[in-house]
Design a protein that fits this description.
By secondary structure, this protein is α/β, with parallel strands linked by helices. Strand 3, helix 3 and strand 4 form a beta-alpha-beta unit. The radius of gyration is 19 Å and the shape is globular.
Amino acid sequence: MRLISICPSNTELVAYLGLTDQLFGVDDFSDWPSTVKDLPQLGPDLSIHMDALEALAPDLVLASLSVPGMEKNIEELQKRNIPHIVFNANSLEEIAQDLLTLGRACDVEKRAKVIMDEYLQSIKEMRSIAQTIAKKPSVYWEWWPNPIFTPGKINWLTEISAIAGGVNLFQDVELASVQTNWADIIKRNPDYIMMAWVGVAFERIQPAILLKRPHAQELHAIQMERLHVMEEWLYCRPSPRLIEGAIKLAKMLHPQEYEHIEHPSFL
């Protein structure tokens, strides 16, 4: 099949299924595995160049609604009658289902089931450890600095926080993504702050911006030196790669409890 992925998480799904040799084009932000950067770049995921995409004559385009604004890509694919699948996972279980859906579409369902089972087993193992931890620190995830956005309850980062022995600071808000303000974060007073700005290069995320906000120095996380810049690609993309991020977070929050947890083989 001639596959095109217009979202980094979809490109990662393709890679885990061993289908990168069937990729003929990707969005500009797809960067893993590194070999995909040699493929035709079709523009940012929110502004795909549809004429260039159509010219590649894909058998299947892997679209996504994981980031607000991608709807126009899907509308254009429909308008042009280009075959496509739309993924929109908000939970770890939905990511597993996306893996299986893609495997079936590409006739590699057996491989997809093997990876899905290992992925789900890793989650189960981490969750069992988390259940033994009595004191779970609160974790504030900053997705975007101005206006401030953070994941809510209906989001994989709530689950990632939980299986790592923590609690998402905004798990009480029944949304996938929450627009909030700094005063609310001061009031909630997190134990940890994790900065993972979506679409911003890791080296460009500046903790100094957060530290200059009013009353930042009064936060428990700041006083305990628990402000961390985290890899966007390990926490903000709905693919099985989130397990790598979960393990890193778990060993940060509870190094002894998760000392012996290992990466699943598919990673």
